[in-house]
Design goal:
heterodimer, A: 308 residues, alpha/beta, Rossmann fold, 2 domains, four-stranded parallel β-sheet, 12 helices, 14 strands, 40% helix, B: mainly alpha, ABC transporter involved in vitamin B12 uptake, BtuC, 14 helices, globular
Chain lengths: 308, 341
């Protein structure tokens, strides 16, 4: 083989080597697959953003609609009643158990579970070949924002979620700006359930109810108790002597009038001056974007002079 | 077919009907024609057309494993119930008499109060803890009831009732102290299959096979025990040893059944009584008939539990008592051989 030919071949090889990759490599695109680690430390992969979603908790349903994925939701748990459009979706079970059959029949490409669902349910659905993402229960507003971003990531709505989180942060900052300068705060008792009026339940440490009441510039009598859903005695309540009572159980028929009739409650300051307000408990009990609505509503209720 | 075998024919027909209903009825309506095509297709191995695939999947992966699990649970509870009633010569005896349910409940609620990692063994924590809790309770009660070498029946019942109250109180206390697990604990204590797939079936099968196998062979022993311990002893029966064997077998079957399905009441009490009212008190027939009819009865209860409020489910333990009690009272009033016990 002549030297010239070798040279020529080498040159050709170089040229080919130089141009073949550029000819076959496609224009670089973003891999649409999404891989995230969920609240049970499971790695969850979606090939593309989810298009048929079943929500297993009211908070999840609210998050899905808030980030703009409402049109992708095809099923819900029976307590998902917000926003109103969600109520028309088929239900797949709820308090007394979920129906795996009904979930499978909806052909979801994502089942969004929450902290209130059992790991057994997640395992059962996983075994049926469904993709399940377990959204952990947030403990702070920041963790709730993270959940919004996670759901947006799974459903292809990152941009909407970024805008949503931004506006939520601004609204919280606006409340903080008015509340933080205050150096006083009323003492508040938030009622979750007083079926037995001598031993009512209230929000304690670790609950959003407690967190938001404090952030709205008040002292929550439940803060000194143990556990997020704390039971307190009427004696403790009399000693704490709240000046404002919030009826989180107003959805279940409790009113200021019915509260005033309870024996032993007449000595409380809040009862004497009639500072008893009904409240939509869903605004503090569902760990979704409406927590910020709850914060604003509480701040307005507790400091009416500041929000006019 | 001889008259002797007629009861078997009836109960097996009932079981076949119950299995059919359990596969045909669910929260998703599958038209009978499609159901038939799916079943025929699964036998011939033909691939199903696309629209039927979901139905096929629901039947094969959801309804069939659940049907088999409920069938086995009903068989275990009812078979053990018949054996317990014979063993204690007490019409009020059911498989939970000496503490299986309360021990299992305590174990399960204890396991639920711990945050297990999401893994195979993390998910097995509740069934394993309830199984261990049930068996530990039975052994403890047996040891507490022992007087010298004998284990008097009365002692066994009283020790069982006392220990059950203790364990139930502890369970209630744990539930009140817990925050998030209350709902899970209540639904477990009221009974109902929570885990899907063939895993639970395969896990409990060996215990049921051994437990129910021993009970099926114990009919003659149970018949002899009806004469009283002394008489049975004189007839050559090693009473204490045989009684312990039956007790272990029945408890093993019950504990395994309860571990995945939760505490389902009433089946183990009532099905043996109905069988006794209809077909007589010969334990050589009563035990197998109770096993077959118990499986069918619990399947019917399960169909009701998942179809009445569909897509929600009513806990199985509620259905068995709600539907079972009126049925039993009806049978009791119509029975020709009153004073049968």
């Amino acid at each position: 083989m002549s030297r010239k030919l070798v040279f020529l071949l080498l040159a050709l090889a170089l040229v080919l080597a130089g141009c073949v990759p550029t000819a076959t490599t496609p224009v670089p695109t973003v891999n649409p697959a999404i891989t995230l680690t969920d609240g049970l430390k499971r790695s969850v992969t979606l090939p593309i953003p989810a298009r048929r979603i079943v929500s297993l908790a009211p908070s999840n349903t609210e998050i899905l609609y808030a980030v703009g994925a409402g049109a992708q939701v095809v099923g819900r748990d029976e307590t998902s009643d917000y926003p109103v459009q969600a109520s028309s979706l088929p239900t797949v079970g709820g308090y007394s158990g979920f129906n795996t059959e009904a979930i499978v029949a909806l052909h979801p490409d994502l089942v969004l579970a929450a902290g209130i669902n059992t790991p057994e349910l997640v395992a059962a659905l996983e075994k049926l070949g469904l993709t399940v993402y377990y959204l952990p229960n947030p403990a702070t507003l920041d963790e709730m924002y993270t959940n919004l971003e996670t759901v947006a990531r799974l459903t292809g709505h990152d941009r909407e979620a970024a805008a949503l989180v931004d506006s939520l942060r601004k609204r919280v900052a606006a409340v903080d700006a008015k509340i933080l300068p205050l150096n006083y705060g009323p003492t508040v008792y938030y009622e979750i359930d007083a079926t037995d009026p001598s031993k009512p339940y209230t929000y304690g440490p670790g609950s959003f109810g407690d967190l938001l009441i404090q952030r709205a510039g008040a002292n929550n009598v439940g803060s000194s108790l143990s556990g997020p859903f704390a039971q307190m005695s009427l004696e403790q309540l009399v000693v704490a002597n709240p000046s404002i009572i919030i009826l989180g159980d107003s959805n279940y028929g409790t009113t200021a009038d019915s509260l005033k009739k309870r024996p032993g409650w007449e000595g409380l300051d809040a009862v004497k001056v009639s500072q008893i307000f009904p409240f939509d408990d869903n605004l503090v009990s569902r760990p979704g974007p409406r927590l910020v609505d709850g914060l604003e509503a509480l701040a307005k209720m507790l400091h009416p002079g500041l929000f006019k | 077919m001889s008259r002797r075998n007629l009861p078997y024919l009836w109960t097996l027909l009932f079981l076949a009907l119950a299995v059919t209903l359990s596969i045909a009825i669910g929260s998703v309506f599958i038209p009978p024609a499609d159901l038939w095509r799916i079943l025929a297709g699964s036998f011939s191995g033909a691939t199903l057309p696309e629209p039927l695939k979901t139905f096929g999947f629901i039947i094969a992966s959801i309804r069939l494993p659940r049907t088999v699990l409920v069938l086995l649970t009903g068989a275990a509870l009812s078979g053990s119930g018949a054996a317990y009633q014979g063993l204690f010569r007490n019409p009020l005896a059911d498989p939970y008499l000496i503490g299986v349910a309360s021990g299992a409940g305590l174990g399960a609620v204890l396991a639920m109060s711990i945050q297990w990692p999401y893994s195979f063994w993390g998910l097995m924590a509740v069934p394993v803890a309830s199984f261990v809790g049930a068996l530990l309770t039975v052994f403890l009660v047996y040891a507490l009831a022992r007087v010298g070498k004998a284990v008097p029946t009365t002692n066994l019942i009283l020790a069982g009732v006392a220990f059950s109250s203790f364990a139930t109180a502890l369970t209630s206390f744990l539930m009140l102290r817990s925050t998030g697990e209350l709902r899970r604990a209540i639904s477990w204590l009221l009974g109902g299959a929570s885990q899907a797939g063939w895993g639970p079936v395969l896990t409990i099968l060996p215990y049921l096979a051994v437990g129910l196998g021993i009970l099926l062979l114990s009919g003659h022993t149970l018949n002899l025990l009806q004469f009283g311990d002394d008489q049975a002893q004189q007839l050559g029966l090693p009473v204490t040893r045989r009684r312990a064997l039956i007790l272990i077998a029945a408890s093993l079957a019950t504990a395994a059944a309860v571990s995945f399905s939760g505490i389902i009441g009433f089946v183990g009490l009532v099905v043996p009584h109905v069988m006794r009212l209809w077909f007589g008190a010969d334990y050589r027939r009563l035990v197998p008939l109770s096993i077959i009819a118990g499986a069918g009865a619990l399947l019917i209860a399960d169909v009701i539990s998942r179809s009445v409020l569909s897509p929600q489910e009513i806990p199985l333990g509620i259905v068995t008592a709600l539907v079972g009690a009126p049925f039993f009272l009806w049978v009791l009033r119509r029975a020709k051989n009153q004073g049968f016990w």
